[in-house]
Amino acid sequence: MKALVYEGVETLGYRDVAMPVPQGGEHLIKVEAVGICGSDMHAYLGHDNRRPAPLILGHEGAGTIVGGPKDGARVTINPLVTCGTCPACRAGRENLCPERQIISMPPREGAFAQYVTMPERNLVPVPDHVSMQVAALAEPLAVSWHAARLALDALHPSMDRQALVIGGGAIGLAAALALTAMDVSDVTIVESNANRRQFLIKNCGQTVVEKATTACPIVIDAVGFAATRATASALALPGGVIAHIGLGEDTGGLDVRRLTLQEITFVGTYAYTMQDFRDTAQAIFDGRFGALNWIENRPLSDGAQAFADLRRGAVATPKIILDPWN
């Protein structure tokens, strides 16, 4: 099969690789759409030692089951594989499983390929009226759904349901959409890239600013750099909540003194639970996220160029979806 392989810093090769072989309880899936995630970009830049080269990246996938009694079933993929038996899994907090694995990280190859294998419990059926490109958004939307849910759970009931989202990429936009779906009517996105800012305003109907100066009860950092953490620290209202999703860099920016003196809750958020993923997929199928027409489709064979374009800030759309069969 063909795959896009991470071969070293800023180096991707489109080449033939061995077909994956399903293990017990797994299905072989023909990947029909797979998104480029910020974590894929971190690996591409050599910033993620959890993803050493050579490796097939990609974990935002949707496709069709091949073979077996469910042959032909359309599915979206929850890429987070967990043990199912530890205390975290039994409590419905599978994202905290100590044995968790995710495709695109050893020992599991990713979905920038024509085929991938996944356990049946990680597959959510996709109705016929939903395209594979939209179905592939379930994973990034679930990340933001989880963060929005945790932020709202932590918000004191006396505070207004008003939010500031730092970062207008796919995760930031998804966070804004998830908050809106959860009845937060006042959401503003902060995005420094002028092209993306205009795209979000014109094509996604979002309120977007280059810089924010007004404090908010909820601040979601969908970038995760020292500078964005400093902004989140400064703009969270006393008694408010910061939900941190981004993994841009490890340290710096967080004003722990202000968080302490103003009783600001800081919530680290990682991935999603199985229930979050299912709830997100259902919200997509029901249209609660809107049209979800803010994606750009490219062939997997042009994946290296897509990464290069993202690297130099030349992509206005929040999400590039790759087609492994073009």
TrEMBL record:
The keyword Cytoplasm does not apply. GO terms for molecular function: metal ion binding; oxidoreductase activity. InterPro entries: ADH-like_C, ADH-like_N, ER, GroES-like_sf, NAD(P)-bd_dom_sf, Zn_alcohol_dh. It comes from the Bacteria. Residues 8-322 form the Enoyl reductase (ER) domain. Gene3D superfamilies: Medium-chain alcohol dehydrogenases, catalytic domain, NAD(P)-binding Rossmann-like Domain. Transmembrane segments: none annotated. Pfam families: ADH_N, ADH_zinc_N. Keywords: Metal-binding, Oxidoreductase, Zinc. Coiled coil: none annotated. PANTHER family: L-THREONINE 3-DEHYDROGENASE (PTHR43401:SF2). This is Threonine dehydrogenase. It comes from Cognatishimia maritima. The lineage of its organism: Bacteria, Pseudomonadati, Pseudomonadota, Alphaproteobacteria, Rhodobacterales.
